[in-house]
Amino acid sequence: MLIRRTVAPAALLLAMLAAGCANNTSDSTDAGAPAPASSSAGIPESTTVQPSGSAPADAKTITGTVTAGVEPGCLLLKDATGDHLLVAKDQTLTASLTVGTQVTVVGVPEPGMMSTCMQGEPFRVLSVAAN
């Protein structure tokens, strides 16, 4: 009799937990992943988007075409040296990185940065200019 009283509530609790996990349709993104690309047309020709502040001494400039990564919300910049995972914390910079756009970005390589994108070397974007 004691077994029935403990097994039934435990089974009910387990069923409720499983149902709650199965219906988790949250649209939240991983903190390590870049924000999804904007559906806007991007930035006009010869426009530069840059947050306030100066570029660090180890900043690099790369030019290439923005492409979509295999994971949702991941943007890559393809150039002669390979793929660079574009990581922009500023929403204005993120909005200017549109798939298919030729851009020149200034930023800092972050080879040790963790990411869910699993493609390219992470590159922290400081400014974007359309080509």
Characterise the protein shown here.
This protein is an alpha+beta fold and 131 residues long. 21% of the residues lie in helices and 31% in strands. The chain contains two helices and six strands, in the order αββββαββ. A hairpin with a 6-residue loop joins β2 (60-68) and β3.
Helix content: 10-25%
Taken in chain order, the helices and strands follow as HEEEEHEE
Mean pLDDT: 75
Radius of gyration: 22 Å
Quick structural summary:
By secondary structure, this protein is of the alpha+beta class. The chain has helices at residues 2-22, 91-96; strands spanning 48-49, 60-68, 75-79, 82-87, 102-109, 121-130.
Characteristics:
alpha+beta; 21% helix; five-stranded mixed beta barrel; 131 residues
Write the layout of secondary structure elements.
Layout: H1 2-22, E1 48-49, E2 60-68, E3 75-79, E4 82-87, H2 91-96, E5 102-109, E6 121-130
Parallel strand pairs: 4-6
Antiparallel strand pairs: 1-6, 2-3, 2-5, 3-4, 5-6
